[in-house]
Amino acid sequence: MKKDFLFGGNLRVNEPQIAKERLRNEQMIIGRLDSRYKGISQNLLGEYANDDPQSSAISPVFTTAFLSYYYGDLKMDRKYNYHTSAYSAEGFSWDCKHNKSSAVDPTDPSTPNTVIDLVDAMSRNPSLKILVLNGYYDLATPFYATEYTFEHLGLDKKLKPNIQLKYYPAGHMMYINSSSANAFKKDVAGFIMNASK
C-alpha cells in the first residue's frame, strides 16, 4: 500500500478502504475476514471494497452444510427459512446503543465499546480468565486492535495475568486452516482445563 494513501488519510484508513487499495494496481481486492484471499475489483475507481473474497470463497460450503443439517438431521419444516446472516433478514439493523455507563454516549453511532463491561466483570470476579484468539490476516477484528484494547483496559494490574492473547497465521476463522485449527483446539482445550482448576 502506498505511503501517500496512508498519510493522505492521516493514518485513519478504514477496513473497506484498505481492502480496496491494497491491490488496486492489480485490479483486485483483498478479503475482510482473511486478507490473504483476493477477488476481482469491478469498480476500478471505487473507494471501498464491496465484497469479501474470503466470505465468497467459503460461505457457500458452510451454508450448504448447515442447511443440510437444519432441514435433514433436525427435520425442520421447509416453510421456516433460516437466515445464515443477520444482513439477509428483512428489516435488520443493529442497535448499537449501550447504556451500561455514563462514560459511554448511548447516542454514539459507532461500534459499541464493551470494554467497560469486561473490566466490570473481571473486577467483580477476580478469578475470571480471558482467552483472546487472533488471526494475523483478520481485517474484521485486527489483532493489533485487540492488543491495544487490552493494554488500555484500565484494569487493576493484579488481574492482567488473567488475560491470554494467542496468535495464528490465519484470518478471522482460524479453524478453516488445518494447522491453525489444531493449534486453536489445543489452546482452547488448555485454557478450559487450566481455568477450571
Q: Let me know the number of strands.
A: 4
Q: Any idea what the CATH architecture of one domain is?
A: 3-Layer(aba) Sandwich
Largest sheet: 2 strands, antiparallel
Overall geometry comes to globular
Radius of gyration, in Å, reads 20 Å
Which percent range fits the helix content?
A: 25-40%
Give structural notes.
- The protein is of the alpha+beta class and about 200 residues long.
- Among the domains are: about 5-55, no CATH class; about 115-195, Rossmann fold (3-Layer(aba) Sandwich).
- Helices cover about 35% and strands about 10% of the residues.
- The chain has helices at about 5-10, 15-20, 55-75, 115-125, 145-150, 180-195; strands spanning about 30, 40, 130-135, 165-170.
- A two-stranded antiparallel ribbon has the order 1-2. A two-stranded parallel ribbon has the order 3-4.
- A hairpin with a 7-residue loop joins β1 (about 30) and β2 (about 40).
- The model is unreliable at about 100-105 (pLDDT under 50).
Task: Please give the structural blueprint.
Elements: H1 3-8, H2 15-21, E1 28-30, E2 38-40, H3 53-73, H4 115-124, E3 130-135, H5 143-151, E4 163-168, H6 178-195
Parallel strand pairs: 3-4
Antiparallel strand pairs: 1-2
